[in-house]
């Protein structure tokens, strides 16, 4: 399993943050030392982990050189987190210096030895923040929902991955495509799954056998500052995420 993993899809509403939070929580529950990095200006990853993102230092302060990364990382019962908030939305304009693609990688190098795994949640866009995540990561997980428009988003992602491989990070690998909110009873879900297999081949990857089924607990957990694995460990969705981790560990 890759040490630094980015959860990515430029389409919003496909479960990136839920996937990132659940994977971090699953690793933490198995006694791994794990860091979650929120690169989305919405700050949903930190918020979902119970952090006060509006009144704390964030990844923005680290990338600007205002704070040391060690001083901004927050320890929680779900793992360690490097939070974000709306200030990061200025990144495209502010981070315009040569080498801006390496800002995140250069910071994570300072703490990488302290962690078994680092999981990065990315914004729903292919911008400088997403490129920073790709440059820092060793592998990508691409969540999607079984709908045609979600499939289109994955197809468009290939060009960005190829560019990052060519100029910044030749070892970047797409670990797999993850189907969220999946139901085998729906014909559209099964049809989109078949089409996703073809897209996966173009990305030199595969569709994970583990699929995440929809559940009320997934939506409720962030309101309590928990992941679905700690909020409702016996539910189907929580079991799906543990199966995903097992598959990634194979």
Would you give an account of this structure?
This protein is α/β, with parallel strands linked by helices and 250 residues long. It has twelve helices and seven strands. The chain has helices at 16-29, 44-48, 59-63, 69-72, 91-94, 103-108, 128-136, 148-167, 187-202, 216-220, 228-231, 236-249; strands spanning 4-7, 34-38, 74-76, 79-82, 117-121, 139-144, 173-179. It has a seven-stranded mixed β-sheet, sandwiched between helices. The longest helix is centred in the middle third of the chain and has 20 residues, at 148-167. The chain is globular, with a radius of gyration of 17 Å.
User: Quick one: overall form?
Assistant: globular
- What level of helicity do the residues show? 40-55%
Strand order of the largest sheet: 3-4-2-5-1-6-7
Based on CA atoms alone, the radius of gyration comes out at 17 Å
Oligomeric state of shown chains: single chain
Main beta sheet:
7 strands, mixed
Poorly predicted parts: none
How many helical stretches? Answer: 12
Mean pLDDT value: 92
Structural class: alpha/beta
Question: How many E strands?
Answer: 7
How do the SSEs run, as a string of H and E? EHEHHHEEHHEHEHEHHHH
Strand content: 5-15%
| Separation of the first and last Cα atoms | 8 Å
């Amino acid at each position: 399993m890759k040490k630094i993993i980015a959860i990515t899809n430029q389409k919003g509403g496909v479960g990136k943050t839920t996937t990132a939070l659940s994977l971090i929580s699953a690793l933490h529950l198995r006694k791994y030392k794990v860091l979650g990095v929120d690169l989305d200006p919405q700050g949903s990853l930190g918020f979902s982990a119970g952090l006060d993102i509006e009144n704390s230092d964030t990844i923005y302060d680290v990338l600007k050189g205002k704070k040391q990364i060690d001083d901004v990382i927050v320890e929680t019962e779900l793992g360690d987190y490097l939070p974000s908030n709306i200030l990061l939305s200025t990144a495209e304009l502010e981070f315009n210096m040569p080498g801006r693609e390496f800002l995140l990688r250069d910071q994570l190098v300072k703490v990488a030895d302290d962690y078994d795994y680092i999981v990065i949640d990315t914004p729903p866009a292919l911008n400088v923040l997403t490129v920073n995540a790709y440059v820092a990561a060793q592998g990508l997980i691409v969540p999607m929902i079984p709908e045609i428009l979600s499939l289109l988003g994955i197809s468009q992602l290939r060009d960005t991955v190829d560019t990052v491989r060519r100029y910044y990070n030749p070892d970047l690998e797409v670990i797999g495509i993850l189907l969220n909110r999946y139901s085998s009873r729906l014909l559209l879900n099964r049809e989109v799954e078949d089409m996703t297999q073809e897209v996966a081949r173009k990305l030199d990857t595969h569709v994970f056998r583990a699929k995440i089924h929809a559940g009320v607990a997934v939506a409720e957990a962030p309101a309590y500052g928990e992941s679905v694995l700690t909020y409702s460990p016996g539910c189907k969705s929580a079991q799906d995420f543990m199966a995903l981790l097992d598959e990634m560990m194979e």
